[in-house]
């Protein structure tokens, strides 16, 4: 194993060992050593006689602003949040600009959501894979080098794969089994949490380790997103599915934040939680054929999730994530297993500072252990994962229970399958377990609302024979073991009422439901107005906060976010009305927001228009 003290030394070593045809895998998400990847990429970019293939997923990047107003907002925020000199991935920048060199290919099996839509280079080179099938694909592709960030133990004797043992461990084992050479380069990051379990490896695991003062960038932390009323409602319904003495898997995003918030409300403010349940069933309906729970957790939950994020931290701190299982392979008691992690700076700090049982009970491990049951210790895994609830999100759901989670009808890939199929399939193999797919019943773009519940979606991630539980803001539909007609009835019961009749007519047209069937009155009130009525009686500001776990933004930035989002989703006619509204505002209105955007003293026609437009949008967004 070689030690390097500079990026140049590590770069030269890779080329000396491999030559001019580099087939490089780098881990998904947080664990990419951006500076080393950029050094290898730029060297090949300058030498047309060299070739580079990159195989990876979730290439995290800071999005470029799409307008002058957005630029005024994000430039300051990005510097404060990511740091002044965050090393963005050069291959991502070139992909986004459609300027990837001809001697370089990039294959991803999971995109950062929405970033590569209509990209004529990235879309054709996307590889659709279950997370658990990736290691075998890496073997077959002939990868010759893996690069990733690592943490170094305090005594310097061991290293941790930390945020990304997910695939590296499985890949290393496969290459060893097939007697194929593989160079693994670890790049020590001083802020990466040192975590144990399977993630802890000896120095001999690597062909080289780079430890340099050049590696100082902040760990990538996605900004915390606001949790809207719809997100909170979906999370509230989902939290009722959690059984004490159970198992939990969740992902990242506002729906998961809503779920975690409601789970903690159930645990710590149970009277308010039960009143919300009572009020919901009074205004809407009570779900059929599934057990629901509203008592605080006594035994608690055990977490097994491909991705660890802030929610698990909050559940651990909140006394919910406390069920311990015996890991026979690791000979240890665990409350949480994860394959990779990504979250806030607060989350990373929490991981770095874990001690005692909080530290010993968390294990980072390989994705093949977390995402399926086919393991030498399968019987133990089955016992551990009792009363499991595996939560995932999807984009659209058809009336027969098939879900599209990552690809549009036209074949354009939004993100990727990841481990979603793994967990859905696993839930059907475990007794008293459920796969829960969460989605918003409708979406709005440029003031046009569209149903996310459809008769037929042309791309399917989860087929209907694996249908189980579906949650929208309007409630819960239990589909496992139900006839097609019952599935249609139950999904329509959680569909926005604006689209119920049209969808029911389609089901009747295709002979999938009795032509005389009518939806019962209690499910005909699925409207945004009824949701707001529910929230109002609950005291939404306190029970359903917009940033339940704190914000990365100042108050002015939070307001500006709402205003900019309002503008982004406005039609030309609404933009004109918004501008007129802005001209009616006073000089004092939204003054702090104007200072933040450097529009408090506008010069020139464009800045005056920007100021009035933004003031109008801020006023309109607040009224909404």
Strand content: 15-25%
Assembly form of the protein: single chain
Looking at the structure, what is the overall shape?
globular
CATH fold type of the largest domain = Glutaconate Coenzyme A-transferase
Description:
The N and C termini lie far apart (60 Å). This protein is of the alpha/beta class. The protein has 3 domains: 2-210, Glutaconate Coenzyme A-transferase, CATH 3.40.1080.10; 229-530, Acetyl-CoA hydrolase/transferase C-terminal domain (Glutaconate Coenzyme A-transferase, 3-Layer(aba) Sandwich), CATH 3.40.1080.20; 555-623, no CATH class. It is globular and about 70 Å long.
Fill in the keyword field for this structure:
624 residues; Glutaconate Coenzyme A-transferase; 3 domains; nine-stranded mixed β-sheet; eight-stranded mixed β-sheet; globular
């Amino acid at each position: 194993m070689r030690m390097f003290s500079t990026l140049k030394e590590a770069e030269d070593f890779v080329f000396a060992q491999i030559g001019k045809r580099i087939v490089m895998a780098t881990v998904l998400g947080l664990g990419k050593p951006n500076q080393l990847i950029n050094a290898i990429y730029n060297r090949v970019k300058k030498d047309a006689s060299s070739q580079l293939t990159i195989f990876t997923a979730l290439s995290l990047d800071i999005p470029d602003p799409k307008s002058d107003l957005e630029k005024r907002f994000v430039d300051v925020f990005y510097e404060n949040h990511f740091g002044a000199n965050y090393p963005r991935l050069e291959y991502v920048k070139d992909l986004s600009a459609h300027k990837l060199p001809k001697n370089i290919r990039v294959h991803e099996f999971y995109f950062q959501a929405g970033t590569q839509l209509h990209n004529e280079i990235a879309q054709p080179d996307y590889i659709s894979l279950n997370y658990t099938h990736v290691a075998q694909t890496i073997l077959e592709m002939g990868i010759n080098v893996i690069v990733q960030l690592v943490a170094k133990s305090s005594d310097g004797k061991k290293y941790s794969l930390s945020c990304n043992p997910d695939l590296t461990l499985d890949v290393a084992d496969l290459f060893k089994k097939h007697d194929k050479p593989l160079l693994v380069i670890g790049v020590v990051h001083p802020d990466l949490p040192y975590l144990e379990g399977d993630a802890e490896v000896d120095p001999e695991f690597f062909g080289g380790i780079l430890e340099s003062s050049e590696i100082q960038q902040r760990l990538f932390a996605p900004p915390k997103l606001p949790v809207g009323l719809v997100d909170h409602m979906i999370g509230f319904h989902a939290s009722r599915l959690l059984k004490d003495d159970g198992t939990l898997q969740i992902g990242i995003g506002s729906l998961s934040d809503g779920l975690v918030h409601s789970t903690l409300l159930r645990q710590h403010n149970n009277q308010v939680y039960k009143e919300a349940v009572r009020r919901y069933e009074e205004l809407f309906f009570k779900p059929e054929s599934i057990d629901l729970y509203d008592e605080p957790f006594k035994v608690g939950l055990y977490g097994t999730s491909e991705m660890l994020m802030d929610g698990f931290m909050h559940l651990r701190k909140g006394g919910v994530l406390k069920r311990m299982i015996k890991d026979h392979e690791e000979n240890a008691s665990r409350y949480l297993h994860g394959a990779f992690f990504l979250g806030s700076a607060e989350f990373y700090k929490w991981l770095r500072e874990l001690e005692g049982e909080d530290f010993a009970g968390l294990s980072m491990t390989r994705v093949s252990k977390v995402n399926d049951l086919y393991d030498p210790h399968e019987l133990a895994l089955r016992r551990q994962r009792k009363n499991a609830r595996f939560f995932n999100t999807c984009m659209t759901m058809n009336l027969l229970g098939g879900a599209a989670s990552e690809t549009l009808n036209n074949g354009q890939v939004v993100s990727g399958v990841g481990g979603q199929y793994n967990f859905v399939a696993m839930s059907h193999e475990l007794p008293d377990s459920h796969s829960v797919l969460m989605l918003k019943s409708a979406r709005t773009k440029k003031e046009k609302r569209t149903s996310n519940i459809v008769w037929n979606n042309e791309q399917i991630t989860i087929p209907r024979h694996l249908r189980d539980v579906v949650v929208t803001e309007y409630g819960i539909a239990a589909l496992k073991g139900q006839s097609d007609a019952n599935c249609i009835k139950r999904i329509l019961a959680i569909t926005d009422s604006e689209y119920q009749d049209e969808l029911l007519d389609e089901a009747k047209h295709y002979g999938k439901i009795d032509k005389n069937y009518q939806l019962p009155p209690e499910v005909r009130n699925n409207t945004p107005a009824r949701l707001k009525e529910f929230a109002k009686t609950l005291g939404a500001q306190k029970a359903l906060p917009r940033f339940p776990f704190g914000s990365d933004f100042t108050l002015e930035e939070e307001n500006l976010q709402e205003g900019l989002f309002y503008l982004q989703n406005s039609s030309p006619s609404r933009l004109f009305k918004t501008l007129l509204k802005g001209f009616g505002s006073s000089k004092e209105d939204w003054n702090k927001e104007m200072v933040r955007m450097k529009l408090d003293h506008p010069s020139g026609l464009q800045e005056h228009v920007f100021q009035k437009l933004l003031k109008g949008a801020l006023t309109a967004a607040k009224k909404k």
